[in-house]
C-alpha cells in the first residue's frame, strides 16, 4: 500500500490516472 503525502487516499478514479504510469501493472490493487 502507498500513501499520499499531502492528501489521504484519493478515490480509485483519481488513483488509476497518476499511479498507472508510475506503478507497474503487478503493483495495482
From TrEMBL:
It comes from Crocosphaera watsonii WH 0401. Residues 1-19 have a biased composition (Basic and acidic residues). This is Uncharacterized protein. It comes from the Bacteria. Residues 1-29 are annotated as: Disordered.
Amino acid at each position: 500500500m502507498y500513501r499520499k503525502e499531502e492528501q489521504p487516499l484519493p478515490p480509485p478514479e483519481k488513483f488509476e490516472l497518476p499511479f498507472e504510469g508510475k506503478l507497474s501493472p503487478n503493483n495495482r490493487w
